[in-house]
Design brief:
It contains eight helices and seven strands; from the N terminus they run H-H-H-H-H-H-H-H-E-E-E-E-E-E-E. The protein is an alpha+beta fold.
């Protein structure tokens, strides 16, 4: 019993300290001490990640014109909460300040539609949706089995089928989000500028130059010091690992 009480007290103390630290960071941000707020948010992220902390840290970097840091943290926040409109809006603001204006390759409309649908919410949101719709499907199935009217049986049958379909899709989308979180290929250029090479060597042919804040996709991470990257417009090349940071 004593051990249980000690655990409870420790948990309460940790939560109180976390709240106090968060309040200190928010207060520093409100007072315009963005550097101090950024240090506190960054320290908190080492203890546990969250979309809100990444978002707040991104705001601090944006206020201090650290565009690469802002883009990186907004991207990380969006990865955890893809349906957050505030994060998406601020990410677009930060991207507008980057040097490289890359026009994405066109894609089939149903691919865009599918991606937008999956990104309506995050992994936890889809998981909750799956649980709720499964319970609803069970209740509707009971209505179909024990309803004493044809109308009720029809509502129960078709409703249960619809809810089961949503349950399956929710689990598929949750799995998709889980894979994105655990197999991250996105990265952000952190150096002021970097020359992308044709081969993973400084002696390789110069292909193009990227600047801080630009998002790239890593398509070959088999080497330690170099990564092959792809831009949204389809360009491919190699750049040093030291000039990028994985989202």
């Amino acid at each position: 019993m004593k051990r249980f009480l000690l655990i409870v007290i420790a948990c309460v103390g940790f939560l109180a300290l976390h709240a106090q630290t968060k309040a200190e960071a928010d207060s520093a941000y409100a007072a315009g001490r963005y550097g101090q707020a950024a240090k506190i948010y960054a320290a908190m992220l080492k203890k546990g990640v969250s979309s809100d902390l990444y978002y707040n840290l991104g705001n601090c970097y944006y206020k201090t014109d650290n565009i690469a840091g802002a883009v990186l943290n907004y991207e990380r926040a969006l990865l955890l909460s893809p349906g957050d409109a505030d994060v998406r809006f601020n990410l677009e603001l930060a991207r507008a300040k980057t040097v490289d204006k890359i026009v994405p390759e066109s894609e089939m409309f149903f691919i865009t539609w599918f991606r937008n649908l999956v990104n309506v919410t995050g992994m936890d949101g889809w998981a909750r949706t799956g649980v709720i719709t499964f319970v609803a499907a069970c209740l509707l199935a009971l209505l179909f089995l024990f309803g004493n009217k044809i109308v009720l049986k029809k509502v129960g049958f078709f409703g249960a089928v619809a809810m089961l379909l949503v349950t399956v899709l929710s689990n598929v989308f949750a799995w998709w989000q889980h894979e994105r979180l655990n197999n991250r290929t996105g990265a952000v250029v952190m150096s002021t500028s970097v020359v992308v090479k044709s081969t993973p060597s400084h002696s390789g042919t110069d292909l193009f130059v990227l600047h801080e804040g630009t998002r790239v996709e890593v398509i070959d991470d088999s080497m330690k010091e170099w990564k092959e990257i792809r831009l949204a417009d389809g360009k491919i090349g190699w750049m040093p690992v030291k000039d990028m940071e994985v989202i």
